[in-house]
Amino acid sequence: MNVEQNERMTRIGPGTPCGRLMRHYWQPVALIDEFDPLFDARMALRPLKAVRVLGQDLVLFRDAQGRFGLLDRDCPHRGADLAFARNEGDGLRCPFHGWKFDVSGQCIQTPAEPARSRLCEHVRQRTYPLVERSGVLFGWFGSESALPPPFPALDCFAAPGSHTFAFKGLWACNWLQAFEVGIDPAHASFLHRFFQDEALEDSYGRQFRGASAGSVEGERWPMTRVMREFDQPVITIAPDDWGMRLTTLRAMSEALTHVRITHGIFPHTFVIPLSETMTITQMHVPVDDTHTFWYSFFTSFAGPVDKTAMRNQRLRAVDLPDYRPRSGRHNDWGFDPEEQMTRTYLGMGEDDINVHDQWACESMGAIQDRTREHLGTTDVAIVANRRVLLRAIDDVEAGRQPPGLARPEVATRRAGPDTVDGIAPAGQWEQWWKDAVARKRGSAPWAAGIPASEA
């Protein structure tokens, strides 16, 4: 990896090669929870937020009819900051000269102008298409003259609201190093290694604390034990229309193999199992070159998600209303050397492994210098994804359509994708994981099936 390639992959502002690529895909903008006064008291009086996505400064607001608008932040009159606008129910009014804009960006009043002025009819602020799915607002930032692709038909967006839960957090690093953690199956045996296992009954909503599907001599193993005792995985990748499927095998004995099926969805999403009946779909939206919001969607194939429990677990690690982590470089990510020697491999807490990934990403620097890397066999997915990313950037620069969910025929296909984390018969693991997925989908209380023509 040379300096020029690293720059092309990481810089995402308007007009940059990777920035132009990213603007072909729907991007998460905010949680619906961010407009709930329970989590931000300011929203009861003024439902408006300043947001920054792909290096662009924007304002997101809700009008009295419940409609959301996403506008450029600088007023088109003289450039004043609309993050301080008056939300008057039918639109935003700039306090500088009183110009007012509705959710479509249309200027509807210019009160200081002469009574017969029709100036406002010719002024429109740039707005961006919005879609609400699974508790998150998504924006599309492509050219005004282009149509956005259909919204992706993934499990986390097909499941009913009762069976999904969304949360987010801010990391002080570039988007690519955040995403690459999720397509690196080898790190779990080290970064998330716990020296003791916990009772499986207390594992709800906690990654790697639940049990792997299947058993060893009738005993269900916690995923923490599997990751700790079998730390030399064999990783293979299989390209597909929306990205890649990763298969990670850990030979436990001549008779048993641990199987973990995960996915990378181009350009910045991964899908992994949380438990036997729940998946995590995590997106990494660039705020700018050196900050990233991760958005996690938890999808249940069993009972409804306990959103209160899931939210409370995660609120312990962030400060509202900005979803900034309480741990970071400023406090050494909560590092405890005694814990590192006796309880965890990293020494940064046992309750939330998210801080483990945060440390790995942020400690590389704001933008990782990939020219200093020495990649190994287990980095096969990292290498493959970078090749696809650089090729996609080149395609966009050449006027060609980028891959994956930017293409209507891919976005509209019900993809799933399927994940599993379990202990399988060594010689039959391929059929085992497919059967496990079929059982999970078949017993889901919502329409989780994927048509055979699309599976």
Can you give a write-up of this model?
The protein has 455 residues and is of the alpha+beta class. It has two domains: 35-132, Rieske [2Fe-2S] iron-sulphur domain (Rieske Iron-sulfur Protein, 3-layer Sandwich); 155-443, no CATH class. Helix content is 21%, strand content 24%. It has eleven helices and 20 strands. The strands form five sheets. Strands 11, 12, 13, 14, 15, 16, 17 and 20 form an eight-stranded antiparallel sheet that branches. The radius of gyration is 23 Å and the shape is globular. The mean pLDDT is 93.
Write the layout of secondary structure elements.
Layout: H1 3-10, H2 17-22, E1 27-31, E2 48-53, E3 56-62, E4 68-72, E5 86-87, E6 92-93, E7 100-101, E8 107-109, E9 130-133, E10 136-139, H3 155-158, E11 164-171, H4 175-182, H5 223-229, E12 234-240, E13 243-251, E14 256-265, E15 269-273, E16 278-288, E17 291-300, H6 307-315, E18 318-319, E19 324-325, H7 337-342, H8 354-362, H9 380-397, H10 408-411, E20 420-425, H11 429-443
Antiparallel strand pairs: 1-10, 2-3, 3-4, 5-6, 6-7, 7-8, 9-10, 11-17, 12-13, 13-14, 14-15, 14-20, 15-16, 16-17, 18-19
